[in-house]
Amino acid sequence: MPVPIHYRRNPWLLPEWSDDERLVVNDPRAERTFTVDSFLLRLLNRLSVPAPARDLDHGGRSPDEFDALLQRLVDAGLLRAQATAGEGDGDDPLKDWSDGEIAMLARGAYAGRPDGPVETVPPQPLVHPESRGTVKLPVDCRRASRPLAEVLSDRRSVRTYGPEPLTLAELGTFLHRAARVRAYTGPAEWQMTTRPSPAGGGLHSLELYLIARDVEGLEAGSYHYDPVAHVLERLTDWTGRLAAMQRELVCEPMRMTDPPQVSFYIASHHARTRKYYGPMALRLIHQNTGCLLQTLYLTAADLGLAPCATGLLEPEPGAEFLPEPKSAFVHTGNFALGR
Q1: CA-to-CA distance for 170 and 167, rounded, in angstroms?
Q2: Which among 208, 195, 328 is positioned nearest to 274, based on CA atoms?
Q3: Which of 151, 182, 239, 281 is 20 to 30 A off residue 95, Cα-Cα?
Q4: pTM of the model
Q5: Nearest to 105 by CA among 213, 20, 27
Q6: pLDDT at residue 12 tops 70
Q7: Residue 137's domain is classified under what CATH number?
Q8: In what order do the strands lie in the sheet with 23-27?
Q9: Are residues 301 and 184 in the same domain?
Q10: How would residue 148 be classed by pLDDT, with cut points 50, 70 and 90?
Q11: In this structure, is residue 115 part of a structural domain?
Q12: How many domains does the chain have?
């Protein structure tokens, strides 16, 4: 008796709402989009696990008509056909991934495509009109860097901090080496810059916000780093909410009780990247965050400071120091810096 063919849904399919308010499924690897009706949506949902045609709802079609429909769906790439239910499962690289993780992987298949008028790209640096003033950051030019091999060898995450404050010169030197804008490059309207850390297309969307608890010469509170002028913009005074945010995003993930002298809240002003990279922007933003975190780590190691990154994120950024609209930002990481 012949083994019945089993059908399963293409795991790369992403459901979306179209501009005309219809439900579509998108295959980003094939760059194809399909409008689906309620019957097809139920069928795709049922085929998250392989099944033969005889076990499926035919939707009032005859067996021959339903077989022809399944073959059309296979030809279109919406379904996959296999000889048995478990065929290929062990080799399926996506079998343990959630739909959200698959969506992130799939979005990386898109190439950069300019989206919308370039004039709407947010400028660098990000302007904070509500700032209470700026703090000039000193740079200790006498502090020589060590050989790269030594810095790489010493790079580590530190989860305990000494009681002494950081100095403003240490903080200023750290930011100057790790995060400043060195130059503008490319067409002016695209706001491309070069910095110590790379970013896709030079479209640096990551903004550094500081929760400064104990820095000599700096009032406790929240600040925004202006990487062009190399200054801190003072945003809010020290509050219980800032202490709670530092505890929840940094201390608890690090399983420590004593907070660091400074923690960084890294947020992407995502329109800068989305305007060029479109659907793959979020994945690229997270890759850029990884590059930035490693640069912060190596700079801290070079200066003999204590660093640690944490990955606990706010799904909807609610930090009091973020400007409105907060939906213009994506929280991408945290970084502790201390002694």
Answers
A1: 5
A2: 328
A3: 281
A4: 0.82
A5: 27
A6: yes
A7: 3.40.109.10
A8: 14-17, 23-27, 32-35
A9: yes
A10: very high
A11: no
A12: 2
